[in-house]
Amino acid sequence: MASYDALVVVSFGGPEKPADVMPFLENVVRGRGVPRERLLEVEAHYQRFGGVSPINQQCRDLIEALRPELDVPIYWGNRNWHPFLEDTVRQMAADGVRRAAAFATSAYAGYSSCRQYLEDIERARAGVEGAPRIVKLRHFYDHPGFVAAVADHARDALSRLPEEHRRDARLVFTAHSIPLSMAASAGPAGGAYEAQLHKASSLVAAALGRGEHDLVWQSRSGPPQVPWLEPDVCDHLDHLAKEGVRAAVLIPVGFVSDHMEVVYDLDVEAAQRAEELGMHVTRAKSAGTHPRFVRMVRELMEEPEPAPCAATCCPPPARRGAGG
Ligand SMILES: CC1=C(CCC(=O)O)c2cc3nc(cc4[nH]c(cc5[nH]c(cc1n2)c(C)c5CCC(=O)O)c(CCC(=O)O)c4C)C(CCC(=O)O)=C3C
Ligand SMILES: [Fe+2]
């Protein structure tokens, strides 16, 4: 940890009261061409949970779990909701921070999962005089700490299935769907979002002593005419039921905490589909504050500074509907 004098957790952000839901959603989809009907649908998901996304509290919990691991101050700033990263960077500058490590709450390459966090950091720094250097830690999808945490939670989800289904329950890994064009341009050679998710899924499956597993997608957004990664997790459950599969464990390997995409899209939507199909399905917790995952953050800070991403990798999608 020789050289960082602070850690900043950089996350997505989420609303914490009903009146914040729409302004938060407007921030998320600004210029992205997400249809109004989709936005209202997603608003209803948040309002069903009292207008509170779990994600901010999960960031606070992660930070509390990190305190005993680190001997530097820990800050937290978001892309889409308070505390906004720019305000955090202003505080860091005022506190005299010179060179901070940034832990973004996403393990993978891609525009939404990597490049956009880099943009968030640079935009925040540009707005603050005397802003510290901020070094984004590397992608951690294949880190033993991440893999062990996800595997541990998957084991626990398997143990919650009826005994007779544990041995042959299907392991179904899930991640946020993204537009095919975004998937094609992820990473220096393209395709890195899917490739890294496949890698993480097979590492977790291997840790469980399993070979066979599936990787499918969830939480599709965007205009209907734009193709996104498929199949969707609910369609995949239909397919498995037709094949005679009676039990499955859903493992949200694409996320690091049980935020709204997990507690709604998996625990409400996919769970309901499983029930209609008469399948036994449990959902594994995401990494969250698993001690091995928490320790991973310190280990990442102890690594040599990662090489910066090539300027051409994970380019932003063409902007729509916001006048450029
Ligand atoms: C790859 C990826 C991750 C994983 C990496 C990472 O974690 O960063 C992720 C995480 C998340 N996505 C989240 C929420 C939303 N994502 C949306 C929309 C979109 N996501 C996209 C991609 C991703 N998203 C994309 C390509 C869009 C289309 C619009 C655009 O091009 O940007 C929308 C708009 C409404 C809708 O869903 O249609 C919402 C509300 C939350 C917060 C949950 C909470 O509040 O608890 C989290 C952690
Ligand atoms: Fe998203």
Describe it.
This protein is α/β, with parallel strands linked by helices and 324 residues long. It folds into two domains: 6-140 and 289-302, Rossmann fold, CATH 3.40.50.1400; 144-283, Rossmann fold (3-Layer(aba) Sandwich), CATH 3.40.50. Helices cover 43% and strands 13% of the residues. The chain contains 13 helices and eight strands. The chain has helices at 21-29, 36-48, 55-66, 85-94, 111-126, 144-159, 163-166, 180-184, 192-207, 233-242, 260-263, 265-277, 291-302; strands at residues 6-11, 74-78, 99-104, 133-136, 170-176, 214-218, 247-251, 280-283. The strands form two sheets. The chain has a four-stranded parallel β-sheet, sandwiched between helices. Strands 6-5-7-8 form a four-stranded parallel β-sheet, sandwiched between helices. Helix 5 links the parallel strand 3 and strand 4 (133-136). Helix 6 packs across helix 9 (192-207). It starts with 5 loop residues before the first strand and ends in a 22-residue tail after the last helix. The model has no long low-confidence stretch (mean pLDDT 96). The site of coproporphyrin III has 26 residues, from helix 1, helix 2, helix 5 and helix 11. Belongs to the ferrochelatase family. One of its GO terms (cellular component) is cytoplasm. Involved in coproporphyrin-dependent heme b biosynthesis. Catalyzes the insertion of ferrous iron into coproporphyrin III to form Fe-coproporphyrin III. Keywords: Cytoplasm, Heme biosynthesis, Iron, Lyase, Metal-binding, Porphyrin biosynthesis. It is found in: Cytoplasm.
